[in-house]
Amino acid sequence: MDLFLKAMKGENKKSRPPIWLMRQAGRYMPEYRTLREKYSFMGLCKHPELIAEVTELPIKRFGFDAAIVFSDILLITETLGCELHFEEGRGPVITPIESVDSLVHHPVVPSMQFVMDGIRLLKERLQVPLIGFAGAPFTVASYLIEGGVSRDLKKTKRWMIENPESFHQLLQVIKRATIEYIQGQIEAGVDCIQLFDSWAHVLSWNHFEEFSFRYLQDIVSEFKKIPIIVFCRGSSFFYEKLAQLEPQVAISLDWHCDMAHIRKKLPKTTLQGNLDPDILLAASREQVVQEVDLLLEKMKDDPAFICNLGHGILPTTPEENVYALIETVHKNKI
Amino acid sequence: MDLFLKAMKGENKKSRPPIWLMRQAGRYMPEYRTLREKYSFMGLCKHPELIAEVTELPIKRFGFDAAIVFSDILLITETLGCELHFEEGRGPVITPIESVDSLVHHPVVPSMQFVMDGIRLLKERLQVPLIGFAGAPFTVASYLIEGGVSRDLKKTKRWMIENPESFHQLLQVIKRATIEYIQGQIEAGVDCIQLFDSWAHVLSWNHFEEFSFRYLQDIVSEFKKIPIIVFCRGSSFFYEKLAQLEPQVAISLDWHCDMAHIRKKLPKTTLQGNLDPDILLAASREQVVQEVDLLLEKMKDDPAFICNLGHGILPTTPEENVYALIETVHKNKI
Known about the structure:
The structure is a homodimer.
Chain A: H1 3-8, H2 30-38, H3 41-45, H4 48-62, E1 67-68, E2 84-87, E3 91-94, H5 108-111, H6 113-125, E4 130-135, H7 137-146, H8 154-162, H9 164-188, E5 192-197, H10 205-220, E6 228-232, H11 235-242, E7 250-252, H12 259-265, E8 271-275, H13 277-282, H14 285-298, E9 305-309, H15 319-330
Parallel strand pairs in A: 1-4, 4-5, 5-6, 6-7, 7-8, 8-9
Antiparallel strand pairs in A: 2-3
Helix pairs in contact in A: 4-6, 6-9, 7-9, 8-9, 9-10, 14-15
């Protein structure tokens, strides 16, 4: 079995740790930028052949140990009747919703057939495991309310606090669509699912439990046969809660915690992460090697560790640094 | 002795917890807004009589258990030769520095005599302890580099990673000025000092140690006779490190952690916090009472707990909610 799925099971005992990067098929790759001259981001996301082509780019070039379906956590919002587009330099733009009633519920799998077809193509071609993914309900809800990227989710938190009942209704609607979406991806053939709660870090402890964790739990408990990774920004403070998810999931940690410390607290959980994406962006080759060595030393002989960043790779990251990262991991024979 | 200083010593044994709020003299108070019609923010900050008047506003109205000198962590940058002003709705604006060489070092205490004079006036008038404060070097450096509020401190982190030597030089310059500034405030009469590392939460574990913690340690070790509180956004993940500061400090926690959990990890440290400022902003009176009761229940009979928010009170917070918070704390006879 390959390194990635072994580490997901906590059974990667006689080898280096697997490595892949969140957003590994993206702007930092010249091949990707070339494709983007011909196609819009949405154009790439909606075409099965292009999904497969882009997903494979970083595998072919860097030899990552897992591929992640090229897509975006917000595409699902179209199945809820939302208007979504992506603007250069601004990211996703959604017509903000004012109430849950404005959402519809199109069957997700037929509406997102392009993703399922992309996954099937990839499964014919790939030599490494394929990770499917979805946004967590809290994070997707925040985009629906804010209408795009926002610094501190003021509108979302105001809605959540002023009207928790309707906020829960919104989360339920998103959760149901998300479960359908994940079910479709699994049927199409993905080997693993990663949930992204990228905005959970704005929440208080109590609110995390009520508005994020509870929905992660509902989703995770639907899928007992496939390995699941949960990524939160905020996992550095929410990790002990995330470790209570049943069945147990792998936890993808942001870059603020000391992995060795988390390992002590969670001796068996598969841990993924957690290099600072800014290191890969701005450091010299020597610094990258040094930082990676430090992380690998902390996680030495760890059978349940997946090397990754603490968040997505940044668009202007030099490819030399990605090579430095991968070479350092590859030469690490444990 | 009063509740606040008792709790700072871990000796608040037979009473309710003390309460004060970060930024308690601010826009949410109509008296403050009236003053701001006559004076600019900087005008208020630089006039000893006005400093004293504004500092006292929330004590007179709400009966908080401690006052905090009305000022801003960035005023000190003027003693380093920086151009600083405040723009409505935008916050602080500083001409960004390109190198450490562009900084000068005016003697801090004479340059900030207005603060010292404000403190002396307050000490004649106040019935509650007075908290002086300063920004931590990392946070002040970030404003010098970004030129104002920034979402993720990209320029700061790039400088820090690309040129750690000159970044350390910058931190040293700010640290020296900060030590002078705190010394001046202590001589003028403050009863406690709070350090604000408001942007530490963007740092990785290693970088926090190298670029934030080390400087906090240098500052704290200069002042062995006065109680010190260290506030970080990011204290939810850095608290075990902060607890290593010597002499021991009180830790002001952001709103992401469970106070009961932190208390188990740090049985003796004075803990301050940690209500979500958005609760006070957007919740109903009943919700505020409920959230505060929850926190008070967690910290019941705790002799080393100071009730506060996890960050500054927000400008449009309804005063009714501040009253609800205070009344709930006041009726909590432990």
